[in-house]
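Researcher: Please predict.
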Amino acid sequence: METQNIVRKANEYIFNLFKEKLSKKLVYHNYRHTFDTAQEAEDLGKLHKLSPEELQDLVLAAWFHDAGYINKYEGHEAESARFASEWLAKQNYPEERIQRVVDCIMATKHGTEPENLLHELLVDADMSNIGKSNFFATAELLRVEWEIFQDRSFSDREWEQFQMDFLLSTTFHTNEAQRKYAEQLGLNIQEQRSRLSKETKKQKKQDKKHYETMAQPKRGIETMFRNTYRTHLNLSAIADNKANMMISLNAIILSVIITYLSAKSSVIGTDFAQHRTLLIPVGTLLATTLGSVIFAIISAQPEITSFALKKNKNKMVSRNVNLLFFGNFTRIPLEDFQTGMNEIMSDKRSLYNNMITDIYYLGEVLSRKYKILRISYTIFMVGLVLTVIAFTIAVVFNQTVATKFPPL
C-alpha cells in the first residue's frame, strides 16, 4: 500500500465529510485547520527523519484528529479516533497501525501528556499556529467559535490577557518544532504584549473616567441627595403630625367618655337599666378609639435601626452599614468611629454608599410609619361608622320598646 495513496484517500474523505456534515459555525476547527495540521505534521515528521510507516501513521492521525467535531464539541477526540479506526479498517489497514493512529489522536486532548515522539509531533503540529504570522487572525476565529459552542465570552482586555497567558505557557515538545516556530513565536509574544498593554491602558482610562464621574462632587448629585433627604424628612414630619392629631383627638374622646361615665356612675343603675342598648355604641366607640390611639402612638414613637458592628473595621465601611447614623456609631468606641469616618472621607464611593444606605433605611422607617398610621385612621373611621350605626339602632330599639311598653 503506497503512502501517498492512503493519505490522499484520507484527505478526500475528510474533505467530503466536513463539506457534508461539519457545522459552518465551526470557523476555526474546520477543513482549513485540518489541512494545515496535516501539512505541518508531515513537515515535522520529515525533519525528524521518521520511517515511511511512522510518517504515514502520523499524517493519517493529523487528517482525522478533528473529525469528531461533526458530532460533538467537548470530548471530540474519542469521536475522531472512532472515525479513523472505522475508515482505516475498511481500507484493510493493519490493526496495530490503526491503534497507533488512534493513540496519536487521543494525545491531542487538552491536558494529555504525549507518550512518544509521534504523539509529540502531532501535538506540535496541532499547536503550530502560535508560531505563525497569522496567529492573531486564527485566534479571533477561535474566540468566535468558543462564544458559539461554549458560551465563553471575553472582553477585549480579557481576551488579550488570555492569549498572553496561553503563549507564555505553551511550549513545543520537539526540538525541530522549537527551531521551526521559535522566531515567529517570539514575535507573536511581543505583539501580544503590545496588544495587552494597549487594552490595559484603554481599560484604565475607562475605569478612571467612570470613577471620576462617580467621585467628583457634581452639583447634580449633591442636589439629588439634598432633595431626597429633605423629602424624607418632610414626609416623616407629616406622618408625625398626623399621628399626633389622631392621638389628641382620640385622647379627647376617651377623656370625655370616661369623665362622663364616672360622673354619672350614680345613675347608671337607673338610666342604663332602662337603656342598656346604649352600652353597645358607647363600647364600640371606646374600643375603636383605644385601638386607633394605640396605632397612632406606635407610628409616632421613635425608631432606631442599627447593626452590631463589633469593632469590625471592614464592616464599618460596608455598603450595608450607615456609619453616619447615630444608632450605629454610638455602639462603637470613639477610636473606631474616627477610623471609619476617616476611611469614608478618603473614599468618595464609601461616602456615597453611606448616604445611599441612610436614605434606604429612612425610607424603610417612613414606610412603616405610614402603614401603621393608615391602620390607625382606618380603625377610627370604621369605629365612627359602627358607633353611629349602633347608636341609631339603639335609639330605634328604645323607641319601639317605649311605644309597646309605655311606663305606668
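Model: The chain has a mean pLDDT of 79.
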